[in-house]
Write a structure and sequence with these properties.
The protein folds into 2 domains: 76 residues, Winged helix-like DNA-binding domain superfamily/Winged helix DNA-binding domain (Arc Repressor Mutant, subunit A); 180 residues, GAF domain (Beta-Lactamase, 2-Layer Sandwich), CATH 3.30.450. It is an alpha+beta fold and 265 residues long. The protein contains 10 helices and 8 strands. The protein has a 6-stranded antiparallel β-sheet, sandwiched between helices. A two-stranded antiparallel ribbon has the order 1-2. The relative contact order is 0.11. The chain is 46% helix and 17% strand. α6 packs antiparallel against α10.
């Protein structure tokens, strides 16, 4: 057995400099106020000179910003901008927003679109309702894969291989409500049978989550379109929960048709 054979598969093609840069980006991503160079050196347990050189390159390439005083480093918005330049996602968001606006006006509710990303659901589009009251999910936030309507829809409307991969990659988020495999299977079967997910939110009292899939050409869910429905109890007679579900279905169907049309050769 050669020395290379003894190396773990994940380490066979190591790129130490690249790993170092990615480690810095991941560290700064968890620090909204940024860190000093000394704090970065301590957190990464590396030499000050190698961290300094890497930081300077990241600043030069505009992935990291240096504070005016020069003593703190924080992530720039470049990674965010790059993520939104991804053509398929950018096209999907562009197609979704006008339809989401129409839904929000008709239902008088907010809505958001989520896609599967690295073990959880990433919110890629968000539209507020027209009234002063509502429930919204922050753009760019991550929500649980197994305890959210969006996650249930994405899992239910994926083929068996894709669903298994998503569950294998599942990352438990802070506060995520656990669900054993048997209970989850029952939920997903119900979602497939109905064609949507509707039920009390597992995150907030008084919220009913309604979610429909946006389907691609292969029949798998590209995204989930979700409304966190809030029922008003004042004198305003707004659309009902059933109304909101019907409007959301209209939006999801229209968006699925658009994705099919734009994917056609």
């Amino acid at each position: 057995m050669t020395k290379a054979d003894k190396v773990a598969p994940d380490d066979r093609y190591r790129a130490p400099a690249l790993d170092k840069g990615l480690d810095i980006l991941e560290l700064l991503a968890s620090q909204p106020q940024g860190l000093t160079r000394a704090e970065i050196v301590k957190a990464m347990d590396r030499g000050a000179s190698e961290i300094y050189r890497m930081l300077e390159r990241l600043v030069m390439r505009q992935y990291v910003m240096r504070s005016v005083s020069g003593d703190r480093y924080a992530l720039s918005l470049k990674l965010f901008a790059l993520a939104h330049m991804h053509p398929p996602l950018n096209r999907l968001v562009s197609q979704a927003l006008p339809l989401m606006d129409v839904f929000a006006q008709r239902a008088e509710q907010s809505c958001h679109m989520g896609v599967y990303d690295r073990g959880s659901v990433l919110i890629t589009a968000q539209v507020n309702g027209p009234s002063a009251w509502g429930m919204s999910t922050r753009l760019g936030a991550r929500v649980g894969l197994v305890d959210s309507a969006s996650g249930h829809v994405l899992l239910a409307f994926s083929d068996a291989e894709r669903t298994a991969r998503m569950l294998a990659e599942h990352t438990t988020l802070d506060g995520e409500v656990p669900m054993d495999s048997a209970d989850l299977a029952v939920v997903l079967d119900t979602v497939r049978r109905l064609g949507y997910r509707q039920g009390n939110s597992l995150q907030s009292f008084g919220v009913v989550d309604i979610s429909y899939p946006i389907l691609g050409v292969d029949g798998n869910a590209l995204a989930a379109l979700t409304c966190p429905y809030i029922r008003r109890i004042d004198r305003h007679a707004g659309p009902t929960e059933d109304d909101a579900r019907a409007y959301l279905l209209d939006a999801a169907r229209a968006l699925s048709l658009l994705t099919l049309a734009t994917s056609a050769p």
